[in-house]
């Protein structure tokens, strides 16, 4: 199975590497990082560089597409090389997926029109504005479109898909191998659980919050 | 605060990128990936390449050291550039940390002698053999030495430390930002939770299991 993870400058590192860590252990999977041009792409913190193995044109028909998010997502809206590749790849993909604000790229390309989907909690209104039906769940599947919530949700998204692709036992075995038995020291990972003031502050600072709100 | 994440060929990607995703959002933190030579390092699946910004010698005294694990750990035991750098950096570090089998590198270098520590569940006996006191916990702290369990535990390790470094509110705010509200679709992430036969099979296949056991 050929799996392509798209990269662009300003992606969030874990959005891409979480799914990679799971999918790279799928038996028979070949995972490629693809971008407009092969080479190094910097993440949104500009302190990490990940290699794209291939240009989009070299991986035209992957079985599984992963679109990560991150602040750089804003540069991938509208026409452009990523959208062109995404729309072509989506015609033959078994699964087209996203993590975090990668869902906005899918939606902007028209792939989530009327479909249930999720994204980073700060971008749910924007996802609706782009025509999807936002659902507050960690992983949302609507047909072959599978979207994960913010950043770290790519791990849960990929494990869910690994089970569908290779069976529950393989997915569980990958989970055991990467010892994914999460025990965060705080319970602040969602707006429903974090202190109210912290949620409000992040909303105020968000690039998705219209000015004045 | 200067944070250095060591890389070597055959590291496990999430071991390095999990802590990075947390630490790169610490106010004032400068995170560098360092290796024997600056350049690209391939992960253990040989399908991901991460950039090392600097050679070890260029980052001699980071405040926080992260040693990831992965199968490539075996090439970092004994004398060599990584150990030499690690021992020098540890003299002035505020924290010396590891994820997964990175703990074996710390232990082999003598830094965990008689100290409580953890590692990937398959490597706990090896950690004891190298002089540490293995503890089956997700994150173990003994003085300035902070070790995380397998692969994905680097997220929990880094959030724990983020709280100590910058306070609970900052750590919680990072958790909310990366929406770290884990909901794995299976409960197989530790040997205590996974099917017994699966645990046995991974033990049999493990490079840490003495032949014949």
| The CATH homologous superfamily of the largest domain in chain A | Class I glutamine amidotransferase (GATase) domain
The gyration radius over C-alpha positions of chain A equals 16 Å
Chain oligomer state = homodimer
Number of strands of chain A: 11
Enter the CATH topology name of the largest domain in chain A.
Rossmann fold
The CATH architecture of the largest domain in chain A can be given as 3-Layer(aba) Sandwich
Can you walk through the features of this model?
2 copies of one chain form a homodimer. The first copy, chain A, is α/β, with parallel strands linked by helices. Chain A has 2 domains: 181 residues, Rossmann fold; 30 residues, no CATH class. Chain A contains 7 helices and 11 strands. In chain A, the strands form 3 sheets. A 7-stranded mixed β-sheet of chain A has the order 5-2-1-6-7-11-10, with helices on both faces. In chain A, strands 3-4 form a two-stranded antiparallel sheet. In chain A, helix 1 runs parallel beside helix 5 and helix 5 runs antiparallel to helix 6. Chains A and B meet through helix 1, strand 2, strand 4, helix 5 and helix 6 of A and helix 1, strand 2, strand 4, helix 5 and helix 6 of B.
């Amino acid at each position: 199975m050929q799996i392509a993870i798209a990269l662009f400058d300003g992606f969030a590192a874990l959005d891409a590497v979480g799914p990679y860590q799971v999918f790279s252990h799928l038996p028979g999977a070949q995972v490629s990082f693809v971008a407009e041009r092969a080479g190094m792409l910097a993440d949104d913190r500009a302190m990490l560089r990940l290699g794209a193995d291939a240009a989009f044109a070299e991986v035209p028909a992957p079985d599984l597409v992963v679109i990560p998010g991150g602040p750089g997502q804003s540069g991938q809206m509208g026409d452009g090389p990523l959208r062109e590749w995404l729309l072509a790849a989506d015609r033959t993909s078994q699964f087209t997926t996203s993590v975090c604000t990668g869902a906005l790229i899918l939606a902007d390309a028209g792939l989530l029109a009327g479909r249930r989907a999720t994204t980073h909690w700060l971008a749910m209104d924007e996802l609706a504005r782009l025509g999807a039906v936002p659902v507050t769940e960690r992983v949302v599947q609507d047909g072959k479109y599978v979207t994960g919530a913010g950043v770290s949700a790519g791990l849960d998204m990929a494990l869910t898909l690994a089970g569908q692709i290779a069976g529950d036992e393989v997915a569980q075995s990958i989970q055991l191998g990467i010892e994914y038995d999460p025990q965060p020291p705080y319970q602040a990972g969602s707006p429903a659980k974090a202190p109210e003031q912290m949620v409000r502050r992040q909303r105020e600072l968000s690039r998705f919050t219209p000015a004045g709100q």
